[in-house]
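The following block was generated as part of the benchmark described in Methods. Ligand: F0G.
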Amino acid sequence: MQANLVCFTPACRAKYLLTDVLYQCPQCGGLLEVEYNWSEANPSSWKRLWRERRTDNAPLNQSGVWRYREMLPFAGSETNEVVTLREGHTPLLKGPLAADYAGLRELTFKHQGFNPTGSFKDNGMTCGVSQAVRLGKQIVACVSTGNTSASMAAYASAAGLKPVIFLPHGNISFGKLAQALEYGAITLQVKGANFDEILALVRRIADRSGIYLLNSINPFRIEGQKTMALEMLDQNDWVVPDWVVMPGGNLGNTAAFGKGFEELYRLELIPRLPRIAVVQATGSAPFFHFMQQQGAPFSAVKTPETLATAIRIGDPVSWPKAESVLQKTRGVVESVSEQEIADAKAIIGRCGIGCEPASAATLAGIKKLVSTGIMASTERVIAVLTGNVLKDPDYIYRYHTGELKTPANGVILSTYGNPPRAVDNDPDAIIQLLERIKN
Ligand code: F0G
């Protein structure tokens, strides 16, 4: 589709080419977004076309991102530059136990952990790395709390580019670090700096070195992530839920979902927008505080803390976009404690679904929103599980064995703990034990 890069700041709206290498507006410093010329579009045929592609074996049609390419900034022959690992087509799963836990009649999860590298980042990275290929870049870089780096490493290597990743030293889960190493990334663990500080560092390096930056400030990543909203509704037979709930870190995902729904609405492919609820961890909740204190300037959290390391971000770059999404969708932000996240995560596990800690903030947030009456028990809710259960096995083991502690070394109760038990090699003793457990 014919498109431009446009400054997101309403007072600026400066326009640039898709092939300009920009992360922010050179005129005002604002965030950039992709804007389409929809006048050439014929959206009335798209729903049928997108459905038909699901049964086709062509790589682009197998991808749950590129299947929706009418709404992506790569047109015609440019799709030859696409690098796909068949991302997307992640399932909608019902979680009756989780619904019960939250006080809802029904709850559906959109599980992005089913992606090739186990998180929603793949939806965006396929677009971001394809843009790097289109620009002729050789080296791509990102700073990450873990999932972005795992995803970027995989897609860059698949495209024959060199991935360089920057991580907060000692503060990402081992599973994610292991992925980056395995996928061949040059992995730099920056000492004594958190995500926000390293992002500022990497932006300086990218400007001076010609390395292409693939953090979610990159508007092409947001376009890829936007297709989660499209696929969610396609799978839901275009029935718009009342709420879509997601965890908030750097807030790129909130921006992406909001853009996806808004464009569908503008193209008259859906009759209304769902309300969006963003959930943050109490120790890393700058956006929650900002939205609470209507009118106060945005203020970063200097030392964000949470065991949900994926969302341990104090200075989220995409907050202006997220604010606009919440305004347009009558959205809300909630914050939840470490205990609430840990318990919600165990419940999602018991649904046979499972997810990483940041993703479980959704269920914890929904429970709170239902209890305060903001969400009605009869409303239709879809929660986005952003990462796979195996991303952070250490957290799981500690929770179930009662060893999990808050970042300040406080107690986290193993409310739904399910510890392994050591047994003797003795059938009678094991049968007795099983009888006791059954009763
Ligand atoms: N959930 C998971 C599993 C994540 O990895 C992230 C972000 C988020 C939620 C929050 O999404 O930043 O768009 O609001 N992880 C980034 C990373 C920051 O580096 O992997 P967001």
